[in-house]
């Protein structure tokens, strides 16, 4: 069994199994937790408009802090959108998803993917630099932050190298790329990357609570 | 006095003109990316060279490699190959059979000991003492070991002799192995392919006779001049890959427009061979040009790398059962954790 066979075979199988186990474990564990009873009189009859409102409002910098937060948020948007384009727009990735789920959708031209990948890599490097340089961010950061950055950066970097055939033979680069994706899948449910699944749940539940209490959103 | 059996005399006897011979040498030099002056050097060296003694052993194989070489589209090329070498033993092509054939082999091995080129096609069965393939009662393994002793170099022609090939595929009932799994002390060049391109076989033979050594090899002992690039890199459909234009089925509009066959399982991106440049049948076409994806036949274990029609990014195994089981396990553990947490919260509330 060569490295590519290992990556496409047992490595992906185990990574997908751990990912599925971890995601369902954490989601079931969190969503089935007991809610604290709220005995107060609700200010509004329905709370879901508040949930929606907060999801949107917290996705945009607040006017009061825009000068301090705009750069970080812009960076965040750039690499998140870049990642989405690369992950869901590249034909080989769509084939991967189709193989797993049966779902299919049109791909984007490779030139757009390569450009997005390069921008994403650049943005991720700036994000890491900012985290290392900014005294407060640095103080707040732990292993989870750096490792989550690494497992996000690695598949993009190895994917770009594989596409460009740089550094090693294509099949070796492809195997390393798939292995880096396997590492991402294994880490995803247990680290801060889980925010991808929980970000709107937490914002929504906070918004619903604010709506019920009549707080300004 | 007998004249030495030099190639120039042999070509003259066969009525091959200097012009045809130079054309062949130029084509071979060009195929192997040698400088233009190498064609004349090759012609000069080949003309004065003694015909290279070649012993060709066929083991667990389908004869496709020999068919590929002998049924080459270009008869001049084929003729030159057989004028260039003295093919002293080849079971399919030789007229002799039985004891006479074996005696010819032994005689040739003795006469050119240490100088002959050993060509092997087919894998070597090793299970149960190698009984699954024998020639004149001798196992392929013993025959190879004996013939390799006096060989100047060994050329493994075809994927079976290079990497084990189809006989080596899971579950490998005969314990088939490649030549390089058995012979460790001789220079070995692999010319894989199922079958290999005839021009590649001719090219490496011409190189060996001209320079007296094997050409530069890659990590899998394949001549770099032919196996340095992937099919994908040299494929005329590559621009469609870059544009993201793919055939979804073998008869859709994309297929009719000649778009990339990546989504139909083409293994071109991970296959190193010269099909896309030299092509087959005198440069007429190659599998991708004929509308079918590359099978990756010149790579080790190509038969065991999943379906030929499964695209490269798709996992090899069907992971649905294991993912479903893992997800159900996760839900069970998560629910159990939530239940325990709820009980704990209730007990805290009651204590208060």
Q: How are the SSEs ordered, and which strands pair?
A:
The complex is a heterodimer of chains A (217) and B (352).
Chain A: H1 3-31, H2 48-57, H3 66-89, H4 91-101, H5 110-133, H6 135-140, H7 143-164, H8 170-187, H9 195-213
Helix pairs in contact in A: 1-8, 2-9, 3-5, 5-7, 7-8
Chain B: H1 7-13, H2 18-31, H3 37-48, E1 52-58, H4 64-70, H5 75-84, E2 85-90, H6 98-111, E3 116-121, E4 124-125, E5 134-135, E6 138-139, H7 140-149, E7 151-157, H8 159-163, E8 176-177, H9 179-182, E9 188-191, H10 198-211, H11 224-227, H12 231-234, H13 238-243, H14 253-256, H15 275-278, H16 320-351
Parallel strand pairs in B: 1-2, 1-3, 3-7, 7-9
Antiparallel strand pairs in B: 4-8, 5-6
Helix pairs in contact in B: 2-3, 2-10, 3-10, 4-10, 5-10
Structure commentary:
The complex is a heterodimer of chains A (217) and B (352). Chain A is mainly α and 217 residues long. Chain A has a domain at 3-20 and 63-190: Transmembrane di-heme cytochromes, Chain C (Fumarate Reductase Cytochrome B subunit). Helix content of chain A is 75%, strand content 0%. Chain B is an alpha/beta fold. Chain B has 3 domains: 7-227, 3-Layer(aba) Sandwich (Rossmann fold), CATH 3.40.50.700; 231-304, Cytochrome-c3 hydrogenase, C-terminal domain (Cytochrome-c3 Hydrogenase, Chain A, domain 2, Irregular), CATH 4.10.480.10; 319-352. In chain B, 43% of the residues lie in helices and 11% in strands. Chain B contains 16 helices and 9 strands. Chain B has helices spanning 7-13, 18-31, 37-48, 64-70, 75-84, 98-111, 140-149, 159-163, 179-182, 198-211, 224-227, 231-234, 238-243, 253-256, 275-278, 320-351, and strands at residues 52-58, 85-90, 116-121, 124-125, 134-135, 138-139, 151-157, 176-177, 188-191. In chain B, the strands form 3 sheets. A 5-stranded parallel sheet of chain B has the order 2-1-3-7-9, sandwiched between helices. A two-stranded antiparallel ribbon of chain B has the order 4-8. In chain B, strands 5-6 form a two-stranded antiparallel ribbon. In chain B, strand 5 (134-135) and strand 6 form a beta hairpin. In chain B, helix 2 (18-31) crosses helix 3 (37-48), helix 2 (18-31) packs across helix 10 (198-211) and helix 4 (64-70) crosses helix 10. Chain B starts with 6 loop residues before the first helix and ends with a helix. The model of chain B has no long low-confidence stretch (mean pLDDT 87). The chains are: A mainly alpha (217), B alpha/beta (352). Chain A binds chain B through residues 1-2, 4-5, 8-9, 12-13, 16-18, 20-34, 91-93, 95-96, 98-100, 107-111, 113, 165, 170-171, 174, and chain B through 230, 232-233, 241-244, 246, 262-263, 269-270, 300-301, 304-306, 310-317, 319, 322-331, 333-335, 337-339, 341-342, 345-346.
């Amino acid at each position: 069994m060569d490295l590519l066979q290992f990556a496409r075979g047992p490595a992906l199988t185990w990574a997908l199994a751990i990912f599925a186990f971890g995601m369902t474990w954490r989601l079931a564990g969190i969503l089935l937790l007991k809610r604290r009873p709220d005995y107060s009189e609700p200010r509004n009859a329905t709370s879901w408009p508040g949930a929606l409102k907060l999801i949107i409002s917290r996705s945009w910098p607040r006017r009061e802090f825009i000068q301090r937060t705009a750069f970080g948020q812009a960076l965040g948007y750039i690499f998140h959108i870049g990642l989405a384009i690369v992950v869901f727009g590249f034909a080989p990735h769509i084939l991967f998803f189709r193989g797993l789920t049966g779902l299919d959708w049109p791909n984007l031209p490779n030139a757009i993917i390569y450009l997005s990948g390069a921008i994403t890599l650049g943005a991720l490097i700036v994000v890491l630099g900012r985290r290392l340089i900014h005294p407060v961010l640095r103080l707040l950061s732990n292993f989870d932050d750096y490792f989550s950055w690494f497992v996000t950066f690695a598949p993009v970097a190895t994917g770009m190298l594989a596409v460009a055939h740089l550094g090693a033979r294509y099949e070796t680069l492809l195997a390393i790329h798939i292995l880096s994706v396997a590492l991402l899948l294994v880490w995803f449910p247990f680290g801060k990357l889980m925010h991808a699944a929980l970000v709107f749940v937490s914002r929504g539940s906070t918004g619903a609570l604010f709506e019920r209490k009549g707080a300004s959103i | 006095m007998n004249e030495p059996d030099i190639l120039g005399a042999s070509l003259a006897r066969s009525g091959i003109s200097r012009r045809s011979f130079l054309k062949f040498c130029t084509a071979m030099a060009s195929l192997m990316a040698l400088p233009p002056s190498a064609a004349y050097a090759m012609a000069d060296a080949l003309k004065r060279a003694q015909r290279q003694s070649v012993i060709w052993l066929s083991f667990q194989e389908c004869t496709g490699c020999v068919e590929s070489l002998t049924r080459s589209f270009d008869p001049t090329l084929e003729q030159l190959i057989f004028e260039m070498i003295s093919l002293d033993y080849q079971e399919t092509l030789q007229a002799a059979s039985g004891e006479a054939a074996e005696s010819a082999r032994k005689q040739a091995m003795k006469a050119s000991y240490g100088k002959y080129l050993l060509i092997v096609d087919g894998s070597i069965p090793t299970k149960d003492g190698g009984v699954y393939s024998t020639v004149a009662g001798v196992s392929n393994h013993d025959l190879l070991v004996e013939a390799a002793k006096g060989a100047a170099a060994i050329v493994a022609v075809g994927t079976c002799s290079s990497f084990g090939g189809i006989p080596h595929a899971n579950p490998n009932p005969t314990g088939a192995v490649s030549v390089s799994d058995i012979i460790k002390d001789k220079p070995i060049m692999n010319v894989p392919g199922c079958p290999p391109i005839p021009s590649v076989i001719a090219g490496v033979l011409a190189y060996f006779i001209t320079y007296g050594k094997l050409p530069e090899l890659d990590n899998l002992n394949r001549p770099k001049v032919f196996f340095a690039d992937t099919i994908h890199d040299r494929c005329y459909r590559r621009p469609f890959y870059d544009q993201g234009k793919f055939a979804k089925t073998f008869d859709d509009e994309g297929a009719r427009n000649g778009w990339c066959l990546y989504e139909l399982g083409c293994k071109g991106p991970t296959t190193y061979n010269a099909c896309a440049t030299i092509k087959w049948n005198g440069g007429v076409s190659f599998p991708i040009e004929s509308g079918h994806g590359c099978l990756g036949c010149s790579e080790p274990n190509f038969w065991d790398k999943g379906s030929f029609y499964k695209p490269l990014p798709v996992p090899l195994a069907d992971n649905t059962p294991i993912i479903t089981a893992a997800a159900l396990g996760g839900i069970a553990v998560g629910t159990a954790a939530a239940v325990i947490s709820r009980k704990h919260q209730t007990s805290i509330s009651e204590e208060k």
